[in-house]
Write a structure and sequence with these properties.
The structure holds two protein chains of two kinds. Chain A is an all-beta fold. Chain A is built from two helices and 31 strands. In chain A, the strands form nine sheets. Chain A has a four-stranded antiparallel β-sheet, with no helix packed on it. In chain A, strands 7-8-9-10 form a four-stranded antiparallel β-sheet, with no helix packed on it. Chain A has a four-stranded antiparallel β-sheet with strand order 11-12-13-14, with no helix packed on it. The radius of gyration of chain A is 24 Å and the shape is globular. Classes of the chains: A mainly beta, B mainly alpha. At the A-B interface, strand 6 and helix 2 of A face helix 2, helix 3 and helix 9 of B. Chain A: This is Serine/threonine-protein phosphatase 2A 55 kDa regulatory subunit B. Chain A: It comes from Tachuris rubrigastra. Chain A: GO terms for molecular function: protein phosphatase regulator activity. Chain A: Belongs to the phosphatase 2A regulatory subunit B family.
């Protein structure tokens, strides 16, 4: 139940939220730089922990609803409190995280320890005063958005208007207003009239970072559709359709499965989007629909192992991907606790490992290499020795600095750029 | 490399095979590979039914793969060949089914892991070319969990395999859509009326339709027991009663 299922920095990067399989949310806060501890800047400590979702039972279908947090998305900060959306398979919740560092003292009707004062003994009125107290961080659910999804929610995305957000499940996408919980608008519905004809599902969806009327959603067939909410109320007809033509020479029975997109993310500047399928990461220019502008192979050495990966279900693993603040580097996870970074400008890529042995505090990570055949060099690891249970599905990059958070099963690793 | 579940039947591309005679034997034919992939996919789909709530994306991807294989096999002509073989073995299927049903309930309960979400019809699996004979023998020994449900639940006459196949896929999606205990009733709506000895068991089952799938299966073995026991007991009681009357009078 401690397995981390989502990782997300907030807009300033000061807070880092993680959600786990047990329905808990843990928020880390960055330490402020201080003269007494000059090295402490950059450390994240636990700020708040709360139980976001509980397991539920759907009586109609006799099925349990998992409490696992599928996604967390922060809202842009508008006042002293922080807000985030967290979702499991069926219900989205808006949480308010606020600090309390003062308490009122000098009540008239009760003592400092809470006991009621005898009214006869009260001779004068006094005005309560605020006194400082130890910092307390409280998380309270402000809105619960329920009963709008028949299928499992895979994505939530806050709109740039900061008033609405979308939630996507396997077949539908709904638009919500943050203030209204009893109503949502269905904007995409790909459920066929006859379920027997179902061949494609929605795998991820995201709003454009600047244009509040634009969003994209990806499918299990490797396609991305960009929709404009101004064109019609129901966005079943896309405005743009992104698909790379299949390479006939590499076609196999697994072609469709490995083309299924597991994550889609807009770049910060809003000009590009990145998609992750099983073996690669692709960068698309929003103005070019017929092919991606860049393709990066994450673990091409697995292409010859697809049958075994199908057998043990690893082929269905959903890896996420992320951009750095400048949109110059992209990062995604792999197996054996490896994660990969691709520099778009230099075209150089790195493989790093998130493990206790290689991650002593302040130690520099050594690049790893997977040997694909022939003689294995020293320090290389062969494909057959990879641990497919150790998968890095969730990673996050600080919005402005070179800080990354990598979730390896039930451990969270934080790395920073050595150039400080 | 971590592998769980099924025994490995498929071979990945670049295995280190020397060009010896032994090496050449180790390379499976494309058909065999395709066949094992089909089998694996079908088992995966059936396992989907067993989960609390199946992952729709995964199910859709596996179903598409199965459809793809089927289409290719149809084009190959392999599908037709398997079809003709099946009708010959239809009667054998029935014999085996009756055999299983008539066994004692204890033996049935021992047959491991009976996946109960059985609207998925698997008769075409037992009919496929290469390992059909093996399937039949394993079915009769009631060891292979795959074949037990297919023979127990498969009451209808073997039809066009393709039709069944499509129907099975449809049923998978329907079950995915409406997951309810009533599927137990659906199972029995297809029961062939010639199996009169099923009546007692069915009665036992029908009264438990509100239970979950696994529960339903567990009671499958017990009604047989109680039915036969109670029959014996009632017989004895009746006999006693008659004797009493005779004695009294």
């Amino acid at each position: 139940a401690d397995i981390i299922s989502t990782v997300e920095f907030n807009y300033s990067g000061d807070l880092l939220a993680t959600g786990d399989k047990g329905g808990r949310v843990v928020i880390f806060q960055r330490e402020q730089e201080s003269k007494s501890r000059p090295l402490s800047r950059g450390e994240y400590n636990v700020y708040s922990t709360f139980q976001s979702h509980e397991p539920e039972f759907d009586y109609l279908k006799s099925l349990e609803i998992e409490e696992k947090i599928n996604k967390i998305r922060w809202l842009p900060q508008q006042n002293a409190a922080h807000f985030l959306l967290s979702t499991n398979d069926k219900t989205i919740k808006l949480w308010k995280i606020s600090e309390r560092d003062k308490r009122a003292e000098g009540y008239n009707l009760k003592d400092e320890d809470g006991r009621l004062r005898d009214p006869v003994r009260i001779k004068e009125l006094r005005v309560p005063t605020l006194k400082p107290m130890d910092l307390m961080v409280e998380a309270s659910p402000r809105r619960i958005f329920a009963n709008a999804h028949t299928y499992h929610i895979n994505s939530i995305s806050v709109n740039s208007d900061c008033a609405t957000y979308l939630s996507a499940d396997d077949l539908r996408i709904n638009l919500w207003h943050l203030e209204i919980t009893n109503r949502s608008f269905n904007i995409v519905d790909i459920k066929p009239a006859n379920m027997e004809e179902l061949t494609e599902v929605i795998t991820a969806a995201e709003f454009h970072p600047q244009q509040c009327n634009v969003f994209v959603y990806s499918s299990s067939k490797g396609t991305i559709r960009l929709c404009d909410m101004r064109s019609s109320a129901l966005c079943d007809r896309h405005s743009k359709f992104f698909e790379e033509p299949e390479d006939p020479s590499s076609r196999s029975f697994f072609s469709e499965i490995i083309s299924s997109i597991s994550d889609v993310k807009f770049s910060h500047n809003g000009r590009y989007m990145m998609t992750r399928d099983y073996l690669s990461v692709k960068v698309w220019d929003l103005n070019m629909e017929n092919r991606p502008v860049e393709t990066y192979q994450v673990h091409e050495y697995l292409r010859s192992k697809l049958c075994s990966l199908y057998e043990n279900d690893c082929i269905f693993d959903k890896f996420e991907c992320c951009w750095n603040g400048l949109d110059s580097t992209i990062m995604t996870g792999s197996y054996n606790n490896f994660f990969r970074m691709f520099d778009r400008n230099t075209r150089r890529d790195t493989t790093l490992e998130a493990s206790r042995e290689s991650s002593k505090s302040r130690a520099i990570l050594k690049p790893r290499k997977v040997c694909t055949g022939g003689k294995r060099k020293k320090d290389e690891i062969s494909v057959d020795s990879l641990d497919f249970n150790k998968k890095i599905l969730h990673t996050a990059w600080h919005p402005t600095e070179n800080f990354i958070a990598v979730a390896a099963t039930n451990n969270l690793y934080l790395f920073q750029d050595k150039v400080n | 490399m971590f592998v769980r579940g099924l025994k490995r039947k498929c071979f990945d591309g670049e295995e280190d095979i020397e060009g010896t005679l032994a090496g050449i034997k180790a390379i499976p034919s494309y058909n065999l590979q395709r066949q094992s992939l089909l089998d694996m996919s079908l088992v995966k789909l059936q396992l989907c039914h067993m989960l609390v709530e199946p992952n729709l994306c995964r199910s859709v991807l596996i179903a598409n793969t199965v459809r793809q294989i089927q289409e290719e096999m149809t084009q190959d002509g392999t599908w037709q060949m398997i079809n003709t073989q099946s009708t010959g073995q239809a009667s054998l299927d029935r014999l085996v089914s009756t055999d299983i049903l008539c066994r004692s309930s204890r033996e049935q309960a021992e047959g491991k892991h009976v996946p109960g979400y059985g609207t998925f019809n698997k008769d075409f699996e037992g009919d496929q070319g290469q390992d059909s004979s093996e399937t039949m023998s394993t079915a009769s020994s009631v060891q292979a969990p795959r074949n037990l449900p297919s023979n127990v639940w498969e009451m209808e006459n073997p039809q066009e395999n393709k039709g069944n196949f499509q129907k099975s896929l449809d049923q998978i999606f329907e079950t995915l859509e409406n997951k309810s205990p009533n599927s137990v009733e659906d199972l029995f709506s297809e029961v062939d009326n010639s199996y009169y000895d099923l009546d007692t068991m069915l009665t036992g089952m029908m009264s438990n339709t509100k239970m979950g799938h696994c529960d339903g299966l567990e009671t499958f073995s017990s009604p047989t027991n109680t039915a036969s026991n109670s029959n014996c007991k009632s017989d004895l009681n009746e006999l006693d009663h008659i004797v009493e009357i005779l004695v009294e009078s």
